[in-house]
Design brief:
Layout (H helix, E strand, L loop, with lengths): L1 H8 L6 H8 L3 H7 L11 H14 L6 H12 L7 H13 L1 H26 L6 H23 L5 H18 L1 E2 L2 E2 L5
Antiparallel strand pairs: 1-2
Helix pairs in contact: 1-6, 4-5, 4-7, 5-9, 6-7, 6-8, 7-8, 8-9
InterPro entries: Homeodomain-like_sf, HTH-type_TetR-like_transc_reg, HTH_TetR, MftR_C, Tet_transcr_reg_TetR-rel_C_sf, Tscrpt_reg_TetR-type
Protein name: Mycofactocin system transcriptional regulator
Pfam family, one: TetR_N
Length: 187
């Protein structure tokens, strides 16, 4: 409901009271679900991050790191086909509204932390090490580039764009080395 209001009236011109009323709840109840108006378009992102953690943790240890990350990237961004118009509207808001772009940096930091943690666990490093951080930024870059292309081209296949982007960075991830150890022990 909030997305429709944001798309119709503009994000900045839509008040929290209007969003709450459209959802049939009070302003106070809205803030039980969302910390701010900027969180509304993100939905329950923390639950999605938990799901991604679980997906990565459930990968067989024999799965090459780059392959597992690409699988997780596609899985994280998979949604039922009937939700495509809604998701496109949501992502257009997130990519096009300056206030939401700024807020997105906080969400992206949480997403990158999940990726860096997984990379660190697989490589024996720490999430704050340069390698895991770099891989997390690379994977986020793939996601953002895929979404930009998808939003610009109604015929684009988001999952294919994500997969293709993952392929571009897979060789680098597979060949990466730091502290004398290969990033991925499973060629």
């Amino acid at each position: 409901m909030g997305l429709e209001l944001f798309a119709r009236q503009g994000f900045d011109a839509t008040g929290v009271e209007e969003v709450a009323a459209a959802a049939g709840i009070s302003r106070r109840t809205l803030f039980r679900y969302f910390a701010s108006k900027s969180d509304v378009p993100w939905g329950d992102f923390d639950t999605e991050l938990d799901r991604m953690r679980g997906f990565l943790a459930a990968l067989p240890p024999s799965t090459p790191l780059a392959e597992g990350l690409c699988l997780a990237l596609v899985d994280f961004n998979t949604f039922p086909p009937q939700e495509a118009p809604w998701h496109r509207q949501r992502m257009a808001l997130l990519f096009g509204v300056p206030a939401l772009q700024a807020h997105s940096t906080l969400k992206y930091a949480g997403w990158r932390a999940v990726v860096a943690q997984h990379v660190a666990e697989r490589t024996g490093g720490a999430p704050g090490d340069h390698g895991p951080r770099t891989v997390a930024w690379l994977l986020l870059g793939v996601a953002l580039a895929a979404y930009e292309q998808w939003l610009a081209d109604d015929d684009a296949d988001l999952l294919q764009l994500l997969s293709d982007g993952g392929t571009l960075i897979s060789a680098g991830i597979t060949q990466a080395r730091w502290v004398g150890s290969p990033l991925d022990e499973h060629p």
